[in-house]
Write a structure and sequence with these properties.
Blueprint (H helix, E strand, L loop, with lengths): L6 H4 L7 H4 L14 H8 L2 H11 L3 E4 L2 E4 L4 H7 L1
Antiparallel strand pairs: 1-2
C-alpha cells in the first residue's frame, strides 16, 4: 500500500491524488499547482529514466531453481538455505 492507497486504487491513474503522494506539486506555478505529468517533464529527463529502469526492470538470474537479482551473494544464499 502506498500512502493510504490500496493496490486496486493505484491501478487507476485518474483516481489517484498525486498531490498527496508528491506534496511539492501544489507549490509549483506560484502555488497554483502542477499536474504530475508536467512535473515529471520539468524534474525528469531521459538519463534519469534510464537510471530508474534498473530499479523497475532489474536483471535476474536463476540459481538452484530460485530467482534472484543478478549479482546475488552465493555465500548468503548458502547461509539462508
Amino acid at each position: 500500500m502506498i500512502s493510504g492507497y490500496p493496490p486496486s486504487v493505484m491501478a487507476h491513474k485518474e483516481s489517484i491524488n498525486f498531490t498527496k503522494l508528491v506534496p511539492e506539486l501544489a507549490d509549483w506555478n506560484n502555488g497554483n499547482g502542477i499536474s504530475i505529468d508536467d512535473w515529471l517533464s520539468c524534474k525528469g529527463d531521459f538519463q534519469l529514466a534510464i537510471a530508474f529502469s534498473r530499479l523497475f526492470w532489474p536483471d535476474f538470474v536463476e540459481h538452484d531453481g530460485c530467482v534472484f537479482f543478478d549479482g546475488f551473494s552465493l555465500e548468503s544464499y548458502r547461509g539462508f538455505m
